[in-house]
UniProtKB/TrEMBL annotation:
InterPro entries: AraC_lig (IPR032783), AraC_XylS_family_regulators (IPR050204), Homeodomain-like_sf (IPR009057), HTH_AraC (IPR018060), HTH_AraC-typ_CS (IPR018062), Tscrpt_reg_AraC-type_HTH (IPR020449). It holds the Pfam family HTH_18. Keywords: DNA-binding, Transcription, Transcription regulation. Transmembrane segments: none annotated. SMART domains: HTH_ARAC. PROSITE patterns: HTH_ARAC_FAMILY_1, HTH_ARAC_FAMILY_2. Residues 208-307 form the HTH araC/xylS-type domain. This is AraC-like DNA-binding protein.
Amino acid sequence: MDAFSDLIRGVRAHGSLFGSSTLSPPWALHFVDGAPLTLCTVLAGGGWIVPEHGPPEPLRARDTVIVRGPGTFTFVDEVGTAAEPVACGEDCATPEQGGTRHRLGWYDRDGDGPGATTLIVGAYPVRGELSRRLLDALPVVLRVPAGGTSDPVLDHLADELAVDTPGQQVVLDRLLDWMLVCTLREWFDRPGGEPPAWWAAQRDPVVGHALRLLHAEPAAPWTVATLAERTGVSRSTLAKRFAELVGEPPLTYLTHLRMTLAADLLVEQDAATVADIARTVGYSDPFGFSAAFKRVRGANPSEFRRSALVTR
């Protein structure tokens, strides 16, 4: 289990809203749900993504844009378009305005015409505190140009959206997961980019190995000595390289990882006691766990659980 796989495991498509819209200018689709992540790509044509808080971003043929919520965004034919925005969201059925067609789960070929733009949108739920660390590393809008590793996935998406067959939602969900991973990989690895420290550190033979061990076995009784032994270097070498590349010592990273996992478990397993959660994340003493949780999260486990369940 590498760090990226662990952080993205709570970002899963499950019954996600898929829209395939064939648009003739002028148009303005306002995506009103403010989903944690929304993936947008066009099969042909192009337009502009205009986030609620941020500058417009062009979206050309086979480009992919990811928009991070909770702000809403609009897809327009051109910045400053005269089109009246059409609200699109989870309850959006088939609004039509100014030549706009919007469908859920299939592609309306009858809407094709000269200069038309075909947009595919997948709205993403994000579950759990652990995955929010991934969201925190993303800008409001990120764009990956055409021609990358996600192009074959886009072909599969287009083919699946062109038909209406049993099991389609499951196929679309899995393709969306695949495309999201490919898009984020390319964006983090782009020339001149500034990926989060944990992303770059995964490539280091020593620190990357250490991160995989911590994420695979977060409840293990890790010390710097045992982690160094498993990675095949001295304690001083591991401590120095880990702090340089990740930005914090290995055991500090482990504590934050454990507390994030615990936060998710406190909400997901509301029948489990604090002592149960403590043991699950590697603490034999629930009092020591509670103290560490409050130090990192700002509230003790019981307070955190009550607050999270109220707002769930």
